[in-house]
Design goal:
six-stranded parallel sheet; globular; eight-stranded mixed sheet; 386 residues; Rossmann fold; 2 domains; alpha/beta
Length: 386
């Protein structure tokens, strides 16, 4: 492990917890912990649930300093307040980072507040890098299905791209760089796992798992329709659904209408890592029927438990992670029949299933969180800051 002589400040929109010792996002806390291994000091700046402002509060838990942006929250008035005070916020961040001897910024996009602060940070004497996790069309249109939202998303994307071209970018997978015509992005394949977890039980391919938001673009209904197609030949098939969203009620109704409710367990969103890992350990196949993805961390996380993934062949960086018929299976978009055929083959052919399981483990072993951070951050520093 190489520790770089870098004092890194990350500017993002993940909320700092009320304690001030971590963020509210378990996955992002794992990312901070991994980054800390490779830099001299780590400082995160973002909005906070803490009742009073936080300034470079050091967390022993993550060995990271946290600073809050009290002017901003995710209510409409809170967003506007932060945007109207962006100069004040940026100047405070720059003053604080000067005292902390920050030598590199990482601005995490797409997000409203970091985007508004980017011009001021780019104009400072401190070098800037970006981490790009998605695009505005995905993040806005999925949450706000109103007529003018695609137009707004396009304008935000164009403005963001003009800023992204001014500094090096680590992107979630390879698809974002291609889709936004961004040259020389450094791909990073998202995950939170640090080890593989061998499972002793006999797998039969009948324990299915879905993990993710339940929104229209995630196409959970394609998986439900696949289960309906399989229920006659595989009456003991089981599907666990982890996640919540606006589309959940309609999906539950769809399952009821297709008489498969008895085959499905709805777990809601799971924040507790141990509970989620228990579900991974008890599952055989993970299905991600989503039409649009950046670099979905659920794939390598599941593969670290030897789960065989099924994903859509043109969904973002999914085909960069899943090698079809090698460590998982790729299917065309919106094809419940193809999903059903893939599952049936896994059930019917134990040798094929075992080969894909072994290769899934191999992928996960090579793509731990620490390995991904070390590789991407190492490329960033060697190409642009050394």
């Amino acid at each position: 492990m190489k520790v770089h002589n870098v004092n890194l400040t990350i500017v993002g929109e993940v909320f700092i917890s009320a304690s001030g010792n971590h963020t509210v996002d378990r996955s992002f806390n794992a990312i901070l912990r991994a980054y800390r291994k490779y830099v001299s000091t780590l400082h995160y700046v973002g909005p906070s649930l803490h009742s009073s402002p936080i300034s470079a509060h050091h967390s022993q838990e993550l060995d990271t300093s946290f600073s809050s942006i009290p002017e901003y929250n995710k209510s409409m008035t809170g967003r506007l307040s932060g945007l109207f005070q962006k100069k004040k916020i940026a100047n405070r961040i720059l003053s604080l980072c000067e005292s902390l001897h920050t030598s590199l910024f990482q601005i995490r996009l797409p997000a409203v507040l970091p985007l508004s602060l980017t011009p001021s940070l780019l104009a400072s004497s401190i070098p800037v890098s970006f981490y790009l996790s998605g695009n505005w069309k995905q993040s806005l249109c999925a949450s706000y299905p109103y007529p003018l939202v695609p137009f707004l998303a396009n304008k935000l994307s164009q403005y963001e791209r003009s800023l992204l071209l001014q500094a090096p970018i680590i992107s979630a997978g390879t698809a974002l760089g291609r889709d936004l015509s961004l040259p020389n992005t450094i791909p990073y394949f998202s995950t939170t796992h640090e080890k593989i977890t061998p499972i002793d039980r006999i797998r039969d391919g009948k324990r299915l798992l879905y993990v993710g938001r339940i929104e229209p673009q995630k196409r959970l209904e394609d998986l439900l329709d696949a289960v309906a197609l399989l229920q006659e030949t595989l009456p003991d098939i089981q599907l666990s659904v982890v996640g919540d969203g606006k589309h959940k009620t309609s999906c539950m109704k769809r399952a009821n209408d297709k008489s498969i409710s008895h085959l499905i367990s709805w777990h809601g969103k799971i924040d507790d890592l141990n509970t989620l890992e228990q579900l991974y350990a008890s599952s055989d196949v993970l299905i991600l029927p989503s039409l649009s993805e950046g670099s979905p961390k659920v794939l390598p996380e599941a593969m670290s438990f030897g789960i065989v993934p099924i994903g859509v062949s043109n969904a973002g960086s999914v085909p960069d992670i899943i090698s079809d018929q090698q460590n998982g299976i790729l299917v065309p978009p919106r094809t419940p029949h193809a999903i059903a055929v893939a599952i049936q083959k896994l059930v019917n052919d134990p040798q094929y299933r075992q080969r894909l399981t072994d290769n899934a483990y191999s992928y996960a072993q090579d793509h731990t969180l620490s390995a991904e951070v070390s590789r991407a951050f190492g490329v960033l520093l060697s190409k642009h800051f050394m």
